[in-house]
Model the fold of this input.
Amino acid sequence: MSENIISCKITTGESQVYTLPIPSDIQFGKERICKEQRALDGTMIIDMIAIKNSLEMVWNLMGDTDLKMLKKAVESVDNTFFDIEIRMKSADIVEKGELKEEQENDVVFMGKVYLSDLSYVPYFINGGFAWKDVNVKVVEK
Amino acid sequence: MEQIRKLRGRIDVIFGKEDQDEGMTVFEKKTVNDGGNVSVIKSELDNNIKKAIISLNESEFTNPIFQLNDIELLRKPRLIGDKRLYRKVISEDKAMLSFEFNIARSVTKWTITGIRYDYDKQTDIDNIVEKVGNYIIEIPSQFKIKLYQFKETVQPSKELSFTMLESDQSVAEDNGQVTNYVVSKGIYFKRDDVIMLQTFTSHELSLDLGLQNNELFEKIEIEISKVHRIIVSDNGGEKQFNYSNYYADANKLQLGNHKVCWLSKCYDNQTEIYDGDEIQNIEITRQLPDSEGDVSYGLVSNSMKATILNTGRKLDTGYLKDVEIMGKRVVPYISVDGKEHKLGTYFVSEWDIPMDNSWVEFQANDRLNDLQTITYTGFFPMDDVGNFKSETLYRIVESVFESINENLVIRLSNKIYSDAEALEKLATLKAQNGWADDETLYLKMRDHIAGGGKLIEGVDWELLNITIPDPYLERQPVWDVLDNIAKSFLCVIYIDEKDRLIIHTDMEDEKRYMLDSIMLKHVTRVDLSRSDVEVDEKTVTASNAFSLSKPKKRKGIVTEVSTSYTTYDFKADSAGQNASDIITYYLKDLEPYKIENNNAYYKLYLPKYLSQVSLDIRSSDIYSSDLISYNKDINKYFYEVYLDKSIIVNTHNCKINGVAISNNSAQISVSNLQAEDKNALDYSAGTLLNCVENANAVANRLIQLYGKGREIFESEWTGDLDYDVDVPVKYSFTVPINAVGGMLHSGSPRIVSNSITFDGGLKQTLKALSYCQSE
Done:
């Protein structure tokens, strides 16, 4: 997965740009926002409000400096929302006559998001420590 | 019922007076050319307008968006979300203003407002200006108005040309008569081939575009190709217009050394639109007085609450204070699967602006509440020879509408037809409903119109069946009169979602009134039907309701109807009777409420019935009829009294034949009681119930309606915004829910309370009432 990720940037409300290390893994998802109520006879009534993108990024191992930067980028109280831009390579199969060819394209995920979850585990090594399983979940504004 | 819905909410917050909703205004504003620099003197702006603009602008006041040569056209529309744009095209020989509306709207008038010229700076203008009372206005005199149904289209849907008459003109009419248009007597504009006299008041000139309210446009362009300066001589009497040839060569927008700019507004009213992420929730409560199932008639004002985003914390300080005098209205909309519902108009009463979060909550009431501040002029009908006479309740309601429409604050949306137009409408309704020529109510309405009455949308025709002998209503707030009417004759009065005042009575089983050009007919006790079948087909059932309840019917028996009332006795005394007391009584409360713009005189509006009276009003120094003049137009009778005189109302030689006042309190007891229930009902009526016959009718009707109890059906359900108070609803469910062989409950009562909660999801709580037919 990570070899296909080109870059991962966070821009805060103060236009401060943070370039994060390439994540080991990324998981995209959708969150459905709706009001659900059941009628007297059990029929589900749903008022659809919105469907929002969510994004989970995992770093298997991360240095302390990088983690501090990540926290600074996502934790700011004044900037609840920040812009995220993830650029990835995709390989599309293109038909050329009878031949099929693989063609590389850039895919960009962009959005204004807020931090939903952040977790990390200390990893002690050689008398010092780094962070493992750094996990960030962001949800579209 | 679709079980997955897409919903959107929107709230329009409107700053400004309602009577300006349809207008577009160009405001004139003087600038000083100081070495080529243009600056704007804020103090010369109309104060109200200045407040609106400064407070609604985010940018600096001196930041123009229109530039007309060295003339600044000031305007920065402020709409949350930047949903509206103004554009301009300025060249040497024309100025084009372009306005785009967020929502297609009707444009029926374009208003130009000029302010008084600064006399001190007029050194090179005709001497006439230096006379007291003269001032100059500068207005566009040749322009085209292009209206676009859709903002994207290139070709306008309508194009209107306006040219001001600059010299006298005589036009031969179709009937051979010649009409002379004398330009010194008024300002005339020629719209295509139509010449219109434009009344010039308060430095404001309003041009009728000749368009209908139902013609909607998304964009309007005004291309001004000529401007004229007019000297207005106004000495408190008739205005004279002097078309100075100062700008005889005014083919270009050259205004000489006198720099004047127009402040150009799209609306007199400014609308801020809150939607999407700017609204947290909307709650609307609409109910009738009997919403609790009690025997109750009167007025209840509907209300709404909403929480909106305090963008940039702008609502914290100053913003609201500055626009306070302009009046604030909010119009909530909720759209369900793309269908938008307007849910009434409300006037903001209270803002709650917490400092610890970004949301602002406000409460607002509908315009019924504001009727407490409007004065009803009184009602005391007399016939031609000065005798008091009976009137129908419809006629009294008509006089209430007259009082409301005279004010400048509240505008009801009821359409009112009179004379030929009313008869035409009546004929259409007759054809639509297949009434026979001798249909009683049709004949009554026809006679009513023929007698000078009006056909008012939303008012029950059954009110024509109620006749009140010698009705007397004094000057009082409109709210009190309506409350009196409601209590006296079991009327339901409310403001509907389209801002119309609806009045109908429970006195008879049938309620018939015109709404949206069709007759609605409710039959109270047998069933309820409504012409719009769309509503009828919707039903509260177990599959769309979250909770349902159907309490036991209530019982109540009328034992007594009482009222206190005042009578005016006629004495058939041919010699007449000194009536000074009664006149003094009328006039002591009379306060001038309208002052002409030249501040020359008060207008004293008097109750209509005093027009029959020969009244003597004296001013402080001399008795002079030229100081106090009596005027009469279609609906109003008033005296004009010059301001520099104090007024003494002297009625010593005023006589009205045979009038004496006596105040009575009376209890009207109903004789044919069926008083068997200890929880008997006492009903207190209004003072319009002033005779035993009517009191008996009310008592009998109450027994008929309530004698067997009433049923309230309450449901909390997914909601259908077509339902409002007074609309029939259908319901059906079995108890236990969905049980095979369960007991089926169904009914079609009338909604008396409608609460809507929208917080992303939509929920509606309806209470509906029906009268029990049998034990």
Strands of chain A lie at 5-11, 17-19, 25-38, 44-62, 81-96, 99-125, 128-140. The two ends of chain A are 26 Å apart (CA to CA).
